[in-house]
Amino acid sequence: MNGQMNSLGAISIRNVTKIYDPEGVNVMAVDDCSLEIASGEVCMIVGPSGCGKTTLLNAIAGFHSITEGEIYLDDKLLCGPSKPKADQGADRMVVFQHGALFPWKTLVENVAYGPIVQGVMSKAEAHEKAEHMLAEAGIEDVANKYPGEVSSGMARRSEIVRALINDPKVLLLDEPYRAMDALTKSIMHESLLEVYDRTKVTIFFITHDLEEAIFLGDKVVVMTTRPATLKKTVDVKISRPRDYQTLTTEEFRVLVEETKDAVHEEAKKAFDAGEREMA
Amino acid sequence: MTNAVQSESIISAPRKKSNLEKLIRNKSLWRGIVALIGAVIFWEICSQSKIWFGVEIPWIGKVPPPSEVLEAWKKIFYYSGYWESWYLSTARVFAGFIIAMLLGIPFGLMLAVNRYFRDVFFPPFEILRPIPPLAWVPASIIFWPTTEMSIAFVTFLGAFFTIVINVLGGARNIDVQYLRAAQSMGAKQWDLFWKVVLPGTLPSIWTGAAVGMGITWEVVLASEMISGGGQQGGGGLGFFIWSSYMGGTVAQVIVGMISIGIAGYLSSSLIRYIGVISMPWRRLF
Amino acid sequence: MNEKNPPLNIQEAPTGFALTIHNWKKSLKTLTPYLMFIGVTLWIGSYYLLVEGWQLPRFNKLPGPVEVITEWTSRDPDWGISMFSPIYYEHIIVSCRRIAIAFAIATCVGVPLGLFMGWSKIFRDYSFPILETLRPIPILAWVPLAILMFSGFETPVIFLATLASLFVTTLNTLLGVDSIDEEYFRAAKCLGSKPHHIFWHIVIPGSLPFIFTGLQISIGVAWFSLVAAEMVSGEFGLGYMIMDSYMNITYVTMVIGMLTLGFVGWVSSAIVRLAGNRMMQWRVRALALEGR
Q1: Which of B38, B96, B111, B202 has the most beta carbons within 10 angstroms of its beta carbon?
Q2: Which of A60, A97, A102 is the best substitution to test chain C (most C C-beta atoms within 10 A)?
Q3: Residue A241's pLDDT band (cuts 50, 70, 90)
Q4: Residue of chain A whose Cα is closest to the Cα of B2
Q5: A237-258 average pLDDT score
Q6: Which fold has domain A1-91+170-182+200-279?
Q7: Spatial distance between the Cα atoms of B104 and B121, rounded to a whole number of angstroms
Q8: Vertex C68, ends C62 and C72: CA angle to 5°?
Q9: Cα-based distances in Å from C29 to A265, B118, B124, C34, C290
Q10: How many angstroms away from the CA of C72 is the closest CA of chain A?
Q11: What's the burial of C31, exposed, middle or buried (CB within 10 Å: 0-12/13-18/19+)?
């Protein structure tokens, strides 16, 4: 009932290229990207907004197709030349940037939704487990409220619980804390770290915040602006469990030092290009 | 640096599809055309069912078939009265509509901007609003000296309520940040009104106008049918439909219906077009 | 800390009816209700002055508020219609019954139709053009055709109101489905939903706000069309009553009819709105917390 469930979840991205075709003008979003993510690893993707990071996530989740290359999950093909678009499924759960909790369901109903529609649990069982998991995450007081009635921090945490109740192999997070203030964010970080320590689920996390990336991740990948390719990969060897004290250690600062030039360079290029972020 | 990034992100662009090509390849368009043609054929079959099959299909069976309608339209085309009625109806619609805009926009803006004005004048407005404009027709005929003016009044009422409600909603929805930003840059009340409130309300004004236009047509039609059009030559499209019905030429009725539909669509498109032009900042979405 | 409006603790936030009472109490503390009273009085006052007090030309042909109210409340009305005459209520009931039927049919057909059009692109491609071609034709233009197609008086009248409602309801439902954020669909698919789950759990609740806006508009439109139809070809009903009293030069009854119409129309719209709020509790509560 703990991390051993997720001994899988290794992702292999090989030479993936993605070309969009809006308005008949070809735009290359991702250019020959290759990346290996081990099972149970926290992989952080850092880069300027709109550079194609979300495209990779969308490809893994099955929202978009890829033009070239292949993506494997545990040695099974997710998408490739023979199958450009992956199937969507509960083994790769996504937590969205603007939050996609169903506004018309209470937090408990939201969390219980997955197991019910998959037919894995009955309604009563699912509700019970949902309440239990929400309590673990510290949200039992407002569990019967609607998302519009609770704070964004609680909503986001609930969304992560909603993802985790399905025992996914991979958790895909698309800048989930982007819209939050720094204080709420730090609480969210600790909450995520705690969840990871418990479940050891593979995490694929997109962010534009370098410090967040190094704080949370095992591996930090810096990507270039559009078209996105790998610019620099850094292994974060800080031991777990981590907490906010980690932010002031020598190790942490050294890692930031190593990576910040690369990130800044790409940020400047993106700014000069002045393109509107592709949402 | 900028150029390098841009040329990397766009592969030597293969030819941009021409608009005509996009149109031809558009599946939705073809399905739509098929559906419309199918509907017309279905109509023809049902209408002719008595003659062709000996069995009359209920309801649609009584309606004249498209072929007859086409015949009737060819005849009407050369009758000047028909085109005069187009002109009359359109003139009435625009007269009432323009007055409604001229009075409604300021009234709506005042309601939005000044809360005392709103507290005093909004309740009577809201009480009168649910009364359908047509219920005003008899009262209007009693009050106004000529039929023309009574029709114009009812038309005006129809559009007025809609426009005011939309303007009110739009003006109140303007983000207060814009007003604050303007004020911090030294804007006076007058500037605020002209440069922030008015442009910010424009989208709602045009939405209200488009809906109001639809209502105006309904009302003009109804007034013409009820009050007899008031003219010898044609009396407006409503009168045209009604007298065709009375005269037993039902195919002409349908011609009239289609004509009004076209007229209504053209006027709504005109409004929408003006709306788009007056709001260049919206085009990018 | 603002003592007049202490921050609401989320646990204690009033919901449902308590919320309405709370809002009323808040408003009584402001100037608003008193100004409203002034506004209404001003309006009735000027109506009275123009028609009965000063008896200005043109205006003196109309019945004034005193006349109308006297007639409305008299036990033995001069022209047959007052609060105490049964025939008054007959007219009201007849009109309401027609609206109820028209609205029910339009909703039961329009909502599923709109949902389906939003759900299936192919179906929409075929049906939307037909809808958009018929929609610009004003409802009244259908009167002769309706009389031709349907026998009797009731059916054409109900048909016209139904048609008007149907266009509005279908279109708004369609817009409602379109308005649902793509991300909800993605989240649902990620969670393992099958198409019918998506339809029930995402499409329907997600379009409810638009559907109810549409229903409010559609009931207004239904009244509009009903009155028009009744005026032209009815036997009973408020529209007929207005037309009839105009023909018989009993203008007081005409005004009574107009005011009744306004009132009944407002009530029916309010019922739809309340039903909507009941079904969309999540929205009402979220908006309440924003202070609206």
Answers
A1: B96
A2: A102
A3: confident
A4: A273
A5: 87
A6: Rossmann fold (3.40.50)
A7: 13
A8: 150
A9: 58, 17, 22, 10, 20
A10: 46
A11: exposed
Ramachandran area for residue C16 (φ above 0: left; ψ -120 to 50: alpha; else beta): left
pLDDT, tens digit (0-9, with 9 covering 90-100), for C244-255: 888 888 888 888
CATH numbers and ranges of domains, chain B: 20-63 (no CATH), 65-280 (1.10.3720.10)
Are A272 and B17 an interchain contact pair (Cβ–Cβ within 8 Å)?
Answer: no
How far apart are the C-alpha atoms of C147 and B225, rounded to whole Å? 14
Closest by alpha carbon to A60, among A79, A74, A47?
A: A79
Cα A82 from Cα A68, distance rounded (Å)? 10
Nearest to B5 among A23, A25, A273 (CB): A273
- Tell me which chains share at least 3 CB pairs under 8 Å with chain A: B, C
Give me A238's structure tokens.
Answer: 């800080």
DSSP B190: H
How big is chain B, counted in residues?
285
Contact A90 C191 (CB under 8 A): yes
Least CB–CB distance from B16: residue in A24, A27, A225: A24
Contact C191 A104 (CB under 8 A): no
Model confidence over C48-57: pLDDT tens digits? 777 777 766 7
Pick from A92, A100, A142: which is nearest to C187 by CB?
A100
Indicate whether this complex's ipTM tops 0.90.
no
- C45 at interface of B, judged by CB pairs closer than 8 A: no
Contact residues on chain B for A25, CB-CB shorter than 8 A: 10, 13, 16
Q: How far is A241 from B19, CA to CA, in rounded Å?
A: 58
* Residue ranges of domains in chain A: 1-91+170-182+200-279, 93-167
Q: Read off the amino acid at residue A44.
A: M
State whether the Cα torsion C49-C52-C56-C58 is positive or negative.
Answer: positive
Q: Under a CB-based contact definition with an 8 Å cutoff, are residues C81 and C240 in contact?
A: no
Q: Enter the pTM of the model.
A: 0.80
Where do we find the tokens 């993936």? A16
Distance CA(A253)–CA(A250), nearest Å, equals 5
* A114: Cα within 13 Å, side-chain hemisphere: 26
